[in-house]
């Protein structure tokens, strides 16, 4: 570390849940030496609540799953000031052109799909399992994983269109990681649900919106004397001898600032981090990992049809909407009844593609038509819907076949900086839930306060985070 008497800071890049959780732990010991630097005007990252159309929305459907660890649930409850509601899931999913209950119970599957389809899917699954037992070939792609675990009928009817919609490509390009992360545990969970303990049919949700968790963390950091800088444009991460990060330079509305660094915690995407580091980068490493983005449409209408579901899942690529949610059903405290109903529509896309750039009104009209087709709103409007939208890049890591080698090279480069740590979904190119992000932050924050720490242990832990699976 370069010499100098001025105390150095523990700088966290990104005020998402992982960064805030780490900063909270660190601020308990290091107080005002902890600085969080965030590019947005709000905290929470992907799990923020934002204000649009005079209402509060989450950035897509967010809930706290019932299966999270009890200690984590207690912590989240505390962060939300005790205001955590337990609610019943009332979702619908579009399968084979019909909406069935999600998560489905056996009777819903039978009623929705019919005996013939259920028998076909079950036979396909058994045949796939038998083939796997005898041929025993390892899956490499999303396609081969589903075919060898669930069979062709389910692949063709559901998973192939689902993958094309979510990832925008044919499933044979995707690595089996995407299936394992998102689907393997879903299957296990669904099977458990069929034997139902009622537990997984419920979820928790903060009365004041999902952003209440980040707000709770922000409050605690500031109480401890830590600093959170919003709307910041980080211009450079200065390095010393190519081995450590020595300072961060950034701009805000009030001017430019530089802070000397003791430890840097990055929760930002690897490509953004590599751009900021002023050290030389090996020419053979490509930091541009692929991501899928999300366009989020907030739509407010007077023409909603009163229905029970809070969420609709649409995996067919024939529609723009991927998931539609009605936030007032997640928490009745949000957006009280005034004749208008507000929906959040998640539309998977790729940065700069047609959907990403589509005119907001045009997007709203196309989505409104889809909502009318699904029976969520009337097809003739008493008044045009109001809308607002935003784009989120770096939302879903895109695990193309062979992604591991590229990612390993990226990690090796970053770990050559002795005081640089990376945590969180976005920094680690990880598909995980919000409680995982909080857990990573708390773990690193706690670890960095220990005097007898060994960096190799941490790098091993960082690798273990890859075992997180996604709860839906
Ligand atoms: C649509 C959607 C729905 C979800 N639903 C659920 C759910 O129901 N339940 C659940 O448990 N999980 C859910 N998740 C997952 C959960 O939101 C994430 O796991 C979690 O919020 C990630 O937090 P993070 O801190 O790891 O990453 P992020 O939230 O991505 O935090 C990274 C932060 O870094 C900031 N940043 C980026 N670049 C820079 C820069 N150059 N300078 C400064 N700051 C920068 C970003 O603005 C952001 O604030 C969902 C995710 C999505 C996208």
Structure in words:
The protein is an alpha/beta fold. The chain folds into 3 domains: 9-48 and 210-285 and 400-467, FAD/NAD(P)-binding domain (3-Layer(bba) Sandwich); 106-195, no CATH class; 291-397, Protoporphyrinogen oxidase, mitochondrial, domain 2 (Polyamine Oxidase, Chain A, domain 2), CATH 3.90.660.20. Helices cover 38% and strands 24% of the residues. It is built from 14 helices and 19 strands. It has helices spanning 17-30, 70-79, 106-135, 142-150, 152-167, 176-194, 211-223, 270-276, 327-330, 354-357, 360-373, 403-415, 434-448, 455-464; strands spanning 9-13, 34-37, 49-52, 55-58, 64-65, 84-88, 91-95, 98-102, 202-206, 227-229, 233-240, 244-252, 255-266, 291-301, 311-314, 323-325, 341-349, 386-397, 420-422. Strands 1, 2, 10, 11, 12, 13 and 19 form a 7-stranded mixed β-sheet that branches. Strands 8-7-15-16-17-14-18 form a 7-stranded mixed β-sheet, sandwiched between helices. Strand 11 and strand 12 (244-252) form a beta hairpin. Helix 1 packs parallel to helix 13 (434-448), helix 3 packs across helix 4 (142-150) and helix 4 runs parallel beside helix 6 (176-194). It is globular and about 75 Å long. The model has no long low-confidence stretch (mean pLDDT 91). The structure holds flavin-adenine dinucleotide (FAD).
Quick summary:
It contains 14 helices and 19 strands. With 472 residues, it is of the alpha/beta class. The strands form four sheets. Strands 1, 2, 10, 11, 12, 13 and 19 form a seven-stranded mixed beta sheet that branches. It has a seven-stranded mixed beta sheet with strand order 8-7-15-16-17-14-18, with helices on both faces.
């Amino acid at each position: 570390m370069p010499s100098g008497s001025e105390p150095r800071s523990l700088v966290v890049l990104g005020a998402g849940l992982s960064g805030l959780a780490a900063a909270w732990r660190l601020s308990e010991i290091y107080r005002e030496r902890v600085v969080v630097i965030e590019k947005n005007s709000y905290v929470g990252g992907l799990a923020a609540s934002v204000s649009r159309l005079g209402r509060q929305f989450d950035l897509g459907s967010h809930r706290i799953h019932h299966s999270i660890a009890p200690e984590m649930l207690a912590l989240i409850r505390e962060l939300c000031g005790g205001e955590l509601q337990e609610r019943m899931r009332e979702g619908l999913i579009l399968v084979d052109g019909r909406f069935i209950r999600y998560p489905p119970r056996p009777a819903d599957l039978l009623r929705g799909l019919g005996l013939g389809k259920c028998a076909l899917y079950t036979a396909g699954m058994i045949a796939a399992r038998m083939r796997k037992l005898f041929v025993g070939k390892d899956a490499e792609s999303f396609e081969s994983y589903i075919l060898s675990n669930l069979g062709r009928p389910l692949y063709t009817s559901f998973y192939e269109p689902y993958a094309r919609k979510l990832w925008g490509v044919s499933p044979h390009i995707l690595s089996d990681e995407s299936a394992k992360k998102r689907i393997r545990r879903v299957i296990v969970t669904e099977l458990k649900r069929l034997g139902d303990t009622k537990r997984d049919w419920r979820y928790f949700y903060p009365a004041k919106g999902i952003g209440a968790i980040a707000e709770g963390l922000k409050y605690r950091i500031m109480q401890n004397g830590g600093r959170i800088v919003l709307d910041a444009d980080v211009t450079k991460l200065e390095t010393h001898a190519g081995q450590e990060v020595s300072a961060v330079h950034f701009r805000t509305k009030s001017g430019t600032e530089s802070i000397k660094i003791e430890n840097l915690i990055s929760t930002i995407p690897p490509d953004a981090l590599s751009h900021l580091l002023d050290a030389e980068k090996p020419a053979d490493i490509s930091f541009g990992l692929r991501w899928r983005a999300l366009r989020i449409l907030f739509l407010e209408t007077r023409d909603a049809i009163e229905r029970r579901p809070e969420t609709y899942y649409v995996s067919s690529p024939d529609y723009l909407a991927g998931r539609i949610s009605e936030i007032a059903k997640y928490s009745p405290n949000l957006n009280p009844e005034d004749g208008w109903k507000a929906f959040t529509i998640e539309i998977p896309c790729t940065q700069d593609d047609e959907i990403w750039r589509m005119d907001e009104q045009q997007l709203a009209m196309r989505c409104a038509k889809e909502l009318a087709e699904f029976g969520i709103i009337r097809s003739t409007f008493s008044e045009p819907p109001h809308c607002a939208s935003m784009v989120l890049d770096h939302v879903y890591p895109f695990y193309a076949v062979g992604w591991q080698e590229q990612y390993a090279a990226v990690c090796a480069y970053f770990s050559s900086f002795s005081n640089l740590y990376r945590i969180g979904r976005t920094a680690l190119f990880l598909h995980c839930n919000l409680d995982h992000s909080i857990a990573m932050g708390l773990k690193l924050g706690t670890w960095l306060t220990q005097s007898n720490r060994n960096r190799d242990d941490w790098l091993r832990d960082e690798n273990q985070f890859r075992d997180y699976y996604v709860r839906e």
